[in-house]
């Protein structure tokens, strides 16, 4: 059995119940986090986890709604780690390795707090009371820049990356498929309907697909069409078309604006998707747990 925790299921604009992207896959002995959008660390706590429970983080891309809580997540993990806590693995499209170094390296933007917590006697005492041994080690991680087709193996899972069609060339964007003994989950990240993500999702048990908004009457989308830039996000139709074409077993709509999340609007999104995709369709809320 594996569990999917929907931690963040919103957009870059905060609403009372949703903000940014993050999903935790509890694959038994290891927990894998996909994206680390706003307040992920606190949303993890609400789901009953701490950053030290998480062994690996995969970023889909470097828009802030997908990675802005990574500094908080890594600092909390470092602050509360024990000698048994495994080294954090961070994977994502280029420039993930550079981004991590810029945050937590010896010259990184968080170096002052790392030094303060390592050297002030009061901080050292708190650290020792938690079982830490001085001198405090600098935060440690292993990071990699992934390209489409790359695979990363954990103890009981494998993640495969595919190109997502989002805002290239400004941000490289990846979709991921995680295979566990219990089944497979596809996290599309932010993408338009595209053959690479459809192929990645082939036969998956669950597909978490971005569903930004209804595309009808959307002036912003109309402007993008005029500029020839349409297609950097899915609405319910495109999410359902990919799910149907890929033959996934279940579609979960995530990354939703406040307006599409209103009760009537969310129901309409599910009904639109259900006309195209014959399997179960769920409109995700933050805190939702699914089992595979
Ligand atoms: Zn996004």
UniProtKB/TrEMBL annotation:
Residues 19-229 form the Metallo-beta-lactamase domain. Keywords: Endonuclease, Hydrolase, Nuclease. It comes from Arthrobacter mangrovi. Signal peptide: none annotated. Pfam families: Lactamase_B. SMART domains: Lactamase_B. This is MBL fold metallo-hydrolase.
């Amino acid at each position: 059995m594996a569990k999917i925790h929907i931690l963040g299921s919103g957009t870059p604009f905060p609403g009372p119940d949703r903000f940014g992207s993050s999903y935790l896959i509890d694959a038994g002995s290891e927990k894998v986090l996909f994206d680390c959008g706003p307040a992920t660390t606190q949303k993890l706590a609400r789901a009953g986890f701490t950053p030290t429970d998480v062994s690996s983080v995969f970023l889909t891309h470097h828009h802030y709604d997908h990675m802005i809580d990574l500094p908080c997540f890594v600092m909390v993990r470092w602050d509360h780690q024990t000698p048994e806590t495994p080294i954090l693995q961070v994977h994502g499209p280029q420039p993930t390795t550079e981004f991590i170094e810029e945050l937590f390296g010896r010259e990184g933007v968080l170096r002052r707090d790392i030094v303060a917590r390592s050297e002030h006697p009061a901080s050292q005492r708190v650290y020792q009371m938690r079982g830490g041994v001085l001198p405090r080690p600098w935060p440690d991680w292993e990071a990699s820049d992934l390209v489409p087709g790359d695979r990363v193996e954990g103890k009981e899972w494998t993640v495969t990356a595919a190109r997502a069609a989002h805002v290239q060339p400004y941000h490289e964007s990846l979709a991921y498929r995680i295979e566990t003994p219990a089944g497979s989950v596809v996290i599309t990240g932010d993408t338009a309907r595209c053959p690479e993500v459809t192929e990645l999702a082939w036969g998956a048990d669950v597909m978490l697909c971005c569903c930004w908004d209804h595309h009808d009457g959307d002036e912003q989308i109309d402007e993008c069409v005029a500029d020839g830039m349409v297609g950097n996000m899915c609405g319910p139709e495109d999410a359902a078309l990919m799910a149907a074409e890929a033959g996934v077993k279940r579609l979960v709509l995530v990354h939703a604006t406040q307006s599409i999340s209103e009760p009537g609007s969310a129901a309409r999104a599910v009904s639109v998707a259900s006309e195209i995709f014959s399997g179960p369709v769920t409109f995700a809320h933050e805190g939702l747990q699914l089992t595979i």
